């Protein structure tokens, strides 16, 4: 029997989050939330200058360095994703809406990033983008 993930798909264009929801976005190590999902996250409590972790109803996962010139390696991103997964495990009262982090300005493909979230298959409070589910459940 396969995993029924259909109720755990993050929408492509999130405009608002409920009180119990957390918008999970790609950030940079400088916490400069000027573009993409990071800019959207400012509306959900992201704090300029804070790179990662919980910020209001948002959670940053850096995929670029502080200068925003260098894209972090998959190995570097994995460490941060693992921290997020541990946080999600401890906060089951919240629903985490993971966006396609690293797949926009950092130019990774879902096939590169999705495997980092494989452990989330069993976390009912973590929603992933459709493209991530397709790569994880292949």
CATH architecture: 3-Layer(aba) Sandwich
Strand content: 15-25%
CATH C-level label:
Alpha Beta
Given as residue ranges, the uncertain stretches (5+ residues, pLDDT < 50) are none
* Main sheet record: 6 strands, mixed
CATH topology: Leucine Aminopeptidase, subunit E, domain 1
Distance between the ends = 14 Å
Q: In DSSP terms, counting alpha (H) and pi (I) runs of 4 or more, how many helices? A: 4
Strand element count: 6
Radius of gyration, CA atoms, in whole angstroms = 14 Å
Structural class: alpha/beta
Inertia-based shape: globular
Work out the helicity level: 25-40%
CATH homologous superfamily classification = Leucine Aminopeptidase, subunit E, domain 1
- Please, what is the average pLDDT? 95
Order of helices and strands: EEHEEHEHEH
Task: Quickly describe the structure.
By secondary structure, the chain is of the alpha/beta class. The chain has four helices and six strands, in the order E-E-H-E-E-H-E-H-E-H.
Task: Summarize the helices and strands and which ones pair or pack.
Layout: E1 9-10, E2 21-28, H1 36-42, E3 53-55, E4 58-64, H2 74-90, E5 95-98, H3 110-113, E6 126-129, H4 130-136
Task: Provide an overview of this structure.
The chain has 138 residues and is an alpha/beta fold. The protein has one domain: Leucine Aminopeptidase, subunit E, domain 1, CATH 3.40.220. 25% of the residues lie in helices and 20% in strands. The chain is built from 4 helices and 6 strands. The chain has a 6-stranded mixed beta sheet, sandwiched between helices. Strand 3 and strand 4 form a beta hairpin. It is globular, with a radius of gyration of 14 Å. The protein starts with 8 loop residues before the first strand and ends with a helix. The model has no long low-confidence stretch (mean pLDDT 95).
């Amino acid at each position: 029997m396969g995993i029924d993930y259909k109720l755990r798909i993050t929408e492509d264009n999130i405009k608002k989050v409920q009180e119990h929801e957390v918008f999970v976005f790609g950030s940079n190590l400088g916490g400069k939330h000027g573009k993409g999902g990071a800019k959207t996250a400012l509306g959900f409590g992201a704090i300029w200058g804070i790179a990662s972790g919980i910020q209001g109803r948002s959670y940053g996962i850096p995929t670029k360095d502080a200068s925003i010139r260098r894209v972090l390696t998959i190995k570097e991103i994995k460490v941060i994703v693992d921290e997020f997964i541990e946080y999600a495990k401890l906060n089951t009262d919240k629903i985490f809406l993971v966006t396609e982090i690293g797949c926009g300005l950092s130019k990774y493909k879902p096939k590169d990033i999705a495997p980092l979230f494989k452990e989330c298959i069993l976390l009912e409070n973590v929603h992933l983008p459709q493209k991530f589910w397709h790569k994880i459940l292949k």
